[in-house]
């Protein structure tokens, strides 16, 4: 990056305290652009059809060359930027940016990558299954199950938050060979796109992985190819046939055994579970779950015999390890004429050898003691009572049931562990408990939702930070990071046992905990292992540590509270009283262009006498690229209270963050209140959590009159949503960001389009403006008390936008008309004039600040902004308050910045909730936040350039 260091510029302007003047509009940049030598066509991203299906019982479904779906068989490799890559600034000092990246031409040449295979180790010394408890405290995703061998790794389900959880606990997902989905939906697969992006960017050629799932898997893969870059390398295998257009499923029956993997390490088989409806089920569909919510599938039951929908099919997986060979007897080997050496190992591996001294063949049975059957683990995902009927009808499972007569029978297989992924509304049912008893002494692990550990935070590191922030400033950080779940959701023996038939089955059952293991090998350790379960610290424990670490923190907390106490001390006038404003509100020296000292006293008219029920900005995710221990990826919840809410970007884990901020029920209400979701660009860290939010809202509002949710985003996003809607009902309508640009008559809506030299690159056929959708947007804005929502083209990647939200005028208690507040969010961008112009006079500018000031080269290469550049944008625009966000994950807790530049700026943290009424005091809190992290060493965590490029 040293070659472009001379492109980091200083600018001249009296409006900017840093003498920065940004001029990146198309009209002013036309003479700066390089004319491309050739018109580059977009490189194709393809997925070859793959459907490894099985129609007969016991048929193996191996990977095959002809039917394997290759997901993006090449990856782009970053290279050092040359002069042709960057918009070279002219003499008037325009800002530089990576032109190739902005055009979407920063990918390398395609590579014909091959599926990597690991050398198998048939004699595995260690093997276990482990609960990766994503979703347990927020109940937003299905937990994952990790099957570990010496040389191979398998994972079942990849809900949102999986990668973040594994990062915290140092579980290397890079060694995953196979991934299995028990259902194909956002609950079980929401974390898959982010995981694939990470795997694809690792190493020189990226990692490869096999993904297995029922026939609906093809819908998911088809949807993901619209935004997963060419770096991803995925081989997907669907089984059970393909649903047709009417929703009818394949010829496979639930009783058919589908063998997916069968090698010397493990045999993994699958049974399909389809919901079975009858007239009796109609009454059941209105039953109430233990937590007070309706049955999960009740909204789908309108009449008996309803056709299947994609995502309704569930899977039971059976993992069988090879038999455990008997103990090797060296004495017998010597007696048969064998010398110690390699032949001993061959016999232990089940191979026959020739005697060294006699003309005989020695067989394994000659020197080994009696063999023991290999351990068996079942993973049962029975999401509804309708699936349970099919579960009972699987005859192939009879071989795994213990004979109650205790008489051994031929073909009987002893199950050691059963992991139940279904909800407690199913697993606590008396009939389900009776079915569990068929497995005899097997260890049952109840990993579904509503278990006792729902009060335990999954992400302990971020919960610790949240608790400390909450202690220092509860006004900005109302969430302590520790959920409070109603006791009714806890696993209780009394609620499980049948009143008609008392059962002690749960003497062999436990509630799953994060990182709980069940050892399968070595045989001497067969059984549960709780040693890896993280210890739990209460908020009180965390605060006691904080007080010991920073003795000044109690005084700091008191000082912070005084800011709000001073505000509350201001006399409150009733509607008939004459409002007496402070003298400084009318002091002509208190203007945005005054000195820094006098500027601090200025309060814009839109904030005077503003209600606390007017606007709250909740920063749900403040990190970039990929989720980390302390920061989730981009998402901002704009709470308009009684008038609804808006989401700006929706990275993976957004739903979980909402539940951590508002609680389980509060998050449901927040999702139902959404008026619009706006997406800045088509990078996964900004939209990978979208379908989870849409699918949940659809279910929450089922049977309640409502309008489809309006999603505003770049046109590539529509392709993803249209493809994914075949899998789950998203109940939304899409509006292209181009049609919400202030001057939407410029064709593509991108700032480059105004320049004739770039027309050939940026001009793309686009859909005509749907006036109905624009009317919908107008009506939504009016209901929400907003005047406009305008997208602003910015400099990052093709079709990248910022957004301006302007509130309508309001009437204060004196009957005066007061201007509405103005909120601007930059998305990802280099500093650009278009955003500065749009941000003029903003009440709040939320601007990305991915890199510290010393990393201008990296910011230029990635088309991101440094801290100083972001502040410069806000200062140039005359923004009242600037909130910096989207920090590189190399800054795990707090980014690097110069406090001298932060007089009207604040650093964002996850779960930070900024009420519009608190904006005047916002910058005053920043020094105390730095105090909180003064002993936190800056950890330069791995921020691999390729991984960052894949995400952002």
Structure description:
There is one protein chain. The protein has 29 helices and 34 strands. The chain has 952 residues and is an alpha/beta fold. The strands form six sheets. It has a nine-stranded mixed β-sheet with strand order 2-8-7-6-5-4-3-18-19. It has an eight-stranded mixed β-sheet with strand order 1-9-10-11-14-15-16-17. A hairpin with a 7-residue loop joins strand 26 and strand 27. Helix 14 packs across helix 16, helix 17 packs antiparallel against helix 28 and helix 19 packs parallel to helix 21. The two termini are 18 Å apart. The N terminus is likely disordered. Keywords: Calcium, Endonuclease, Hydrolase, Magnesium, Manganese, Metal-binding, Mitochondrion, Nuclease, Transit peptide, tRNA processing, Zinc. InterPro entries: RibonucZ/Hydroxyglut_hydro (IPR036866), RNase_Z/BN (IPR013471), RNZ2-like (IPR047151), tRNase_Z_dom (IPR027794).
**Main beta-sheet annotation:** 9 strands, mixed
Determine the N-to-C terminus distance.
18 Å
List the strand order in the largest sheet: 2-8-7-6-5-4-3-18-19
What Rg, in angstroms, do the CA atoms define? Answer: 30 Å
Based on DSSP secondary structure assignment, what is the total number of beta strands? 34
What low-confidence regions span 5 or more consecutive residues with pLDDT below 50? 1-84, 244-251, 282-305, 485-506, 571-599, 744-765, 937-947
Helix-strand category: alpha/beta
How helix-rich are the residues, as a percent range?
10-25%
The overall pLDDT, averaged over residues, is: 77
Shape: elongated
Count the helices. How many?
29
User: DSSP strand (E) fraction?
Assistant: 15-25%
